[in-house]
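Pilot study result, target chain (176 residues):
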Amino acid sequence: MDLAAATAFAALTALGARVSLHLPFTPVPVTGQVFSVLLAGAVLGPRLGLVSQAEYLAAGAAGLPVFAHGGGPAAMLGPTGGYLVGFPLAALVVGLCAERLGDRGWRLALGCLCGALVVHISGAAWFGVWASIVRGSAALSAVLSQSLLPFLAVDVVKALAAAAAAPGLRRRLWAA
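Predicted structure:
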């Protein structure tokens, strides 16, 4: 049951990549992945949340088109690679926060916000590296305006939605 649940959340994250809105000023799309990652940590806990996202990355690294930009190593080394690599750590952080702070209400929302922050730090850091390699320039203002600032508000909403959905989903999943 545990591995099946982790695999289901890996699949949910892959589906979240299909929900994608491409913005004209950045190669980083708005996707449903962050919601799935946060929900995985909140529902599965730290260990299985991390496993679910490691499964997701393994599927993409193996070439399955589960990322917003396809699959394979090239997708992982592209402008969104840092976000992808941050997913397992974010699920772990959300799960740990849920265990230590509480798995309901504002405490879970805080945990989900911390997980979203992990994704954004990882994503922006890699985007800066990618931009300096591919574009020859990684001015901090450009990195922030293309990899962080446009996504903060929508990911706050995703974090709050994941925190709201997690308790009921957790009850249903583990009652089965």
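One observation from the pilot: The chain has a mean pLDDT of 95. A full batch analysis is planned for the follow-on phase.
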